[in-house]
Amino acid sequence: MTTATLPSSASTLHALLDLARGEALDASNSGPARRMQLCILGALASLGLAAVFGVAVGSTDLMLAAGNVLKVPMVLLLSVLSSLPAALVAQKLLTLPGTGRSVVESVAAGTFASGLVLSVLAPVVAIYYHTSAWAGPMLGIASVVAAVAVGHLVFLRALMNRRPDGSSRRSAAVPAVVFMVLQSLTLVQFIALASPMFPESTKFNGGIDALIQR
């Protein structure tokens, strides 16, 4: 039984990595039910990976680290759920090429990629938080910015790879622009609501008001 499940597990992992790169899925993973399964797995995995980063950022304070196990994944999840409906509405109302399913799959790809970035940078962030009062906070914030940037790029790439043949890249990118702008705006406010997540006070603690102040 164990031997029989290994190929399936390996295939799922390979498909998830393709998802994180924004690649179109191969024929064995192209069915609607299988694609939705991979999207759900990727979304759940991204929440777990975000929790790992939350523990790393708060590792100098046990209570902060414990709180971040819920806070960081919740901020990621809420920012996605707050932005996805607008992207789907834009895609439908403007009769843009592609389907709502392709937008959802692309969002899942970008979210999973963001989680991977956060998790691979987590050990470095934790080490510097314990050894450098200056570099730790800088790396923590830079990791979040990098994760958001990579997630958005993967989302856009995934959406382009899933657009109908012959359709305009510009029109197909409209839902991506809507999603990326709204997620960036909501992410800042959700971080402020969930603060503190970093051991030190940052401008993100005050939301958009603190960021735009000179």
How would you characterize this protein structure?
The protein is mainly α. The chain has one domain (11-212). The protein is 79% helix and 0% strand. It has helices at 2-21, 32-57, 62-93, 100-131, 135-161, 169-172, 174-194, 207-212. α1 packs across α2 (32-57), α2 (32-57) packs parallel to α4 and α4 (100-131) runs antiparallel to α5. It starts with a helix and ends with a helix.
In helices, the fraction of residues equals over 70%
The outline comes out as globular
State the domain count: 1
Question: What is the subunit arrangement here?
Answer: single chain
Question: Would you summarize the structure shown here?
Answer:
With 214 residues, the chain is an all-alpha fold. The chain is built from eight helices and no strands.
Give structural attributes.
214 residues; mainly alpha; 8 helices; 0% strand; globular; disordered N terminus
List the helices and strands and how they pair.
Blueprint: H1 2-21, H2 32-57, H3 62-93, H4 100-131, H5 135-161, H6 169-172, H7 174-194, H8 207-212
Helix pairs in contact: 1-2, 1-4, 2-3, 2-4, 3-4, 3-7, 4-5, 5-7
